[in-house]
Amino acid sequence: MLKYSSIRLRRRQAGAEDFWLRVFDSATGEELQKVPLPVPAVATPMTYTLDGRQCIVVAAGGHGDGAVPLGDSLMAFAVD
């Protein structure tokens, strides 16, 4: 669970093989947290609100090019 009230999410640019989802303060740009992913994220994080709670989802999947492990994951987080 992520515990922030005003955040921005970032992953490295498309094609980058990075195993982290980063959480930033939306006002200052300060990195607040790095959340490990099982394989690099291949999609832009999505955010939505469900029952008044902010949720974040990102698809992470290895490409099979030999540089990163194979895998298909849909990572979901709740923000408090």
Keywords:
single chain, 80 residues, mainly beta, 6 strands, globular
Descriptive account of the structure:
- By secondary structure, this protein is mainly β.
- It is 0% helix and 48% strand.
- It has one domain (7-79).
- The strands form two sheets. The protein has a three-stranded antiparallel β-sheet, with no helix packed on it. A three-stranded antiparallel β-sheet has the order 4-5-6, with no helix packed on it.
- A hairpin with a 5-residue loop joins strand 2 (20-25) and strand 3.
Largest sheet entry:
3 strands, antiparallel
- Rg over alpha carbons: 13 Å
- How many helical stretches? 0
Total beta strands:
6
Topology:
Layout (H helix, E strand, L loop, with lengths): L6 E4 L9 E6 L5 E6 L9 E5 L2 E9 L10 E8 L1
Antiparallel strand pairs: 1-2, 2-3, 4-5, 5-6
Summarize the structure.
By secondary structure, the protein is mainly beta.
